[in-house]
């Protein structure tokens, strides 16, 4: 009976207090992810100290998913040195995922996609903006927000076709003559990146 | 139970994702047209200071240099 007492007490305290995330006056107001047996044994051993908090108690609740699919996709496209697009509302983006070109529309299933070197295009009405992305990740959230992060992304006009051809020839040759696993992997990466750039420039 | 998912070739060769990603980014930067290439090299400059130690003391006060490209 006494075992239940602290749980019942904390339940009534939580119900009475406001539901704001920042108001955390008593340790008994922890969200239901708290392990009540642990808290009780803690109180027996150290009644004057608050039980330690866990990372989940610091987490903010997820932004709610709209009940109807929004008409526009909000895109945040960031690079380590610049924020290319920030909160831009677009119709569709096509991202070069490792599993192939993936079209993202508003209301897309929440996905985390690893990107391969390739073209990312942002479609806004009749406007299409293309970037060549070196690699990165795309996080598609349930509320139609897409966070795309890349290490290097350049508009296609900034790529020099002759250097791409030269690089492709170089790395193809290195791949043929590579000996260790690591050299082979590096040469293979070179071939992939340069073929992707080639395809991007000509396609 | 399957032993493992198909690993990418670079992971199989012992490379981490960060190394792979940095190599890709460097290759793309090397293929840029002129003003953009110089800007990106500037941006990605890393300043190093390397000192060799012997008997608990640095041998030289340290020699300074900087890398603009990963040794690929």
From TrEMBL, chain A:
Coiled-coil regions, chain positions: none
Localization: Mitochondrion inner membrane
Domain of life: Eukaryota
CC per GO annotation: mitochondrial inner membrane; proton-transporting ATP synthase complex
SUPFAM superfamilies hit by this protein: Epsilon subunit of F1F0-ATP synthase N-terminal domain
Region of interest (Disordered), residue spans: 45-65
The keyword Membrane is assigned to this record: yes
Keyword Membrane: yes
InterPro entries in the cross-refs: ATP_synth_F1_dsu/esu, ATP_synth_F1_dsu/esu_N, ATPsynth_dsu/esu_N
CDD domains in the record: F1-ATPase_delta
Known role: Mitochondrial membrane ATP synthase (F(1)F(0) ATP synthase or Complex V) produces ATP from ADP in the presence of a proton gradient across the membrane which is generated by electron transport complexes of the respiratory chain. F-type ATPases consist of two structural domains, F(1) - containing the extramembraneous catalytic core, and F(0) - containing the membrane proton channel, linked together by a central stalk and a peripheral stalk. During catalysis, ATP turnover in the catalytic domain of F(1) is coupled via a rotary mechanism of the central stalk subunits to proton translocation.
Family of the protein in this entry: Belongs to the ATPase epsilon chain family.
Stated name of the protein: ATP synthase subunit delta', mitochondrial
Source organism of this protein record: Brassica campestris
Automatic annotation (TrEMBL), chain B:
An annotated GO BP: proton motive force-driven mitochondrial ATP synthesis
Broad class of where this protein is predominantly found: mitochondrion
Keywords: ATP synthesis, CF(1), Hydrogen ion transport, Ion transport, Membrane, Mitochondrion, Mitochondrion inner membrane, Transport
Cellular compartments per GO CC: mitochondrial inner membrane; proton-transporting ATP synthase complex
Signal peptide: none
Pfam families from the UniProt entry: ATP-synt_Eps (PF04627)
Protein location: Mitochondrion inner membrane
Residues forming coiled coils: none
Record InterPro entries: ATP_synth_F1_esu_mt (IPR006721), ATP_synth_F1_esu_sf_mt (IPR036742)
One function term, GO molecular function aspect: proton-transporting ATP synthase activity, rotational mechanism
Domain of life: Eukaryota
Record note on quaternary structure: F-type ATPases have 2 components, CF(1) - the catalytic core - and CF(0) - the membrane proton channel. CF(1) has five subunits: alpha(3), beta(3), gamma(1), delta(1), epsilon(1). CF(0) has three main subunits: a, b and c.
UniProt family annotation: Belongs to the eukaryotic ATPase epsilon family.
Protein role: Mitochondrial membrane ATP synthase (F(1)F(0) ATP synthase or Complex V) produces ATP from ADP in the presence of a proton gradient across the membrane which is generated by electron transport complexes of the respiratory chain. F-type ATPases consist of two structural domains, F(1) - containing the extramembraneous catalytic core, and F(0) - containing the membrane proton channel, linked together by a central stalk and a peripheral stalk. During catalysis, ATP synthesis in the catalytic domain of F(1) is coupled via a rotary mechanism of the central stalk subunits to proton translocation.
The protein, known as: ATP synthase subunit epsilon, mitochondrial
Species assigned in the record: Brassica campestris
């Amino acid at each position: 009976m006494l075992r239940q007492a602290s749980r019942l007490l904390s339940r009534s305290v939580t119900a009475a207090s406001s539901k704001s995330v920042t108001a955390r006056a008593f340790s008994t107001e922890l969200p239901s992810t708290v392990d009540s047996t642990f808290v009780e044994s803690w109180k027996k051993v150290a009644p004057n100290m608050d039980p330690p908090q866990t990372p989940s108690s610091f987490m903010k609740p997820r932004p709610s998913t709209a009940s109807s699919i929004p008409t526009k996709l909000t895109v945040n496209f960031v690079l380590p040195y610049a924020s290319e697009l920030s909160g831009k509302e677009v119709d569709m983006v096509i991202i070069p995922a490792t599993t192939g070109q993936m079209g993202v529309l508003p209301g897309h299933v929440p996905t985390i996609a690893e990107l391969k070197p390739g073209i990312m295009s942002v479609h806004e009405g009749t406007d299409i903006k293309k970037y060549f992305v070196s690699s990165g990740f795309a996080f598609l959230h349930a509320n139609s927000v897409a966070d795309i992060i890349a290490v290097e992304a350049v508009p296609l006009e900034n790529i020099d076709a002759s250097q791409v051809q030269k690089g492709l020839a170089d790395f193809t040759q290195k791949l043929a003559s590579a000996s260790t696993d690591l050299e082979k992997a590096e040469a293979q990466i070179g071939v992939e990146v340069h073929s992707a750039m080639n395809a991007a420039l000509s396609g | 139970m399957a032993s493992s998912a198909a690993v990418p070739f670079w992971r199989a060769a012992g490379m981490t994702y960060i190394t792979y990603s940095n190599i890709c980014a460097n290759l793309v930067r090397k293929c840029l047209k002129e003003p953009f290439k110089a800007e990106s090299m500037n941006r990605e400059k890393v300043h190093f200071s390397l000192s060799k130690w012997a008997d608990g003391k640095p041998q030289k006060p340290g020699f300074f240099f900087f890398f603009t490209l990963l040794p690929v």
